[in-house]
Amino acid sequence: MAKSDLSRRTCTVARTAEIIGDSWSQMIIHEMFLGTRRFDGMQRLTGASPHLISVRLKRLEAEGIVRKEAYSTRPLRHEYRLTEKGRDLWPVIIAMKNWGDRWMETPDATPITLTHTECGHETRPYLVCSACEAPIGAVTTRATISDEMQAERRSVLND
Amino acid sequence: MAKSDLSRRTCTVARTAEIIGDSWSQMIIHEMFLGTRRFDGMQRLTGASPHLISVRLKRLEAEGIVRKEAYSTRPLRHEYRLTEKGRDLWPVIIAMKNWGDRWMETPDATPITLTHTECGHETRPYLVCSACEAPIGAVTTRATISDEMQAERRSVLND
Q1: Cα angle A122-A124-A127, degrees, rounded to a multiple of 5
Q2: CA dist., res. B118 & res. B96, Å (int)
Q3: Mutate to test the interface with A, among B34, B49, B59, B96 (most CBs of A within 10 A)
Q4: A142/chain B closest Cα distance in angstroms
Q5: What ipTM, to 2 d.p.?
C-alpha cells in the first residue's frame, strides 16, 4: 500500500500522519511557531534543500495549514503564515519538544524555554482529562475503536 | 544537509523529528498503543510493506522506544512492546489524533474514543500550563531560545 493510502483510512491519526508525518514538514511548522516566515530563513534554519522546503510548503499550503502572503510587490516577495488549522498543530510540536527535552541527549538540556504569558511563569505544558481535569496518560486511558474502523481493521487482518 | 543531521542539532524538536518524523514510525507507535504487538498485525494494520516495518522497528528498538520479547520459544517468535521512553510518546499521538479529529474529513467523526479510566468519562485530553494549570496554546506562550541554540541559528543564517 502506498503512503498516500493513509489518507483514505478511517483513522484520523493515519490521516494526520500522511500530512505531517515527515520530519521536514514538522521542522517548517516548528520554525513558523518560532516566528520564521520567509523561505530563505526556513531553508537555512531547517537545513533542508530549497527543493525539499518548496515541495513541503506547497503541500502545507494545499492542505490549508500554511498561507502565502505578499510582503513586497516590487519585487514580488512572499512570506508564509500558519492558518488556524496550522496553529492548531502546536500541541503536536510541544509534545515532541517535551519528549525530546526528556529523552534526547543534547548539549543544552532545554534549548527552548516556554513562558505562559497569562501567568508569567515558565511552563512545560502537559495533558489533562477534558472531563475531570486531572493529568492523563497512556496508562489511565482506554481507547475504543468505532464499528467502522473495527470493520476496516478486520478486513486487512483477514486478507 | 542530510536528514540525519537533524540528530546533531541543539533543538530537541529537531532531534525528535529525526527519530519519529516519519509516518510509518508514527503508525507503528499508534498501533502499539492500540495493543498491536506482533509484526504481522503491525504490517497488515498499517498497510506498509514488511521491509518498511522491519526497518522502522529496528530503528525504534535501537532508540530504546520499542523492546522485543519472545512469546514462544519453539518456534522462536517475538512480539514488540513500548518501553517507558516509547509510552512517553503518547502525547504526540494524542495531539495528532485531536488535530485529525478536528481537521480531517473522515467517514467517521471520531474513529477512536478515549475514556479516562480514573474518572470513567469520555475524554479529549488538552494541554494546560504546568505553573497555573490553565489551558494553554500557541497564542498565550512565548518561546525563549537558549544562547547555545541562538548561536547555532545565527551561524546558519549568516552562512
Answers
A1: 140
A2: 23
A3: B96
A4: 5
A5: 0.95
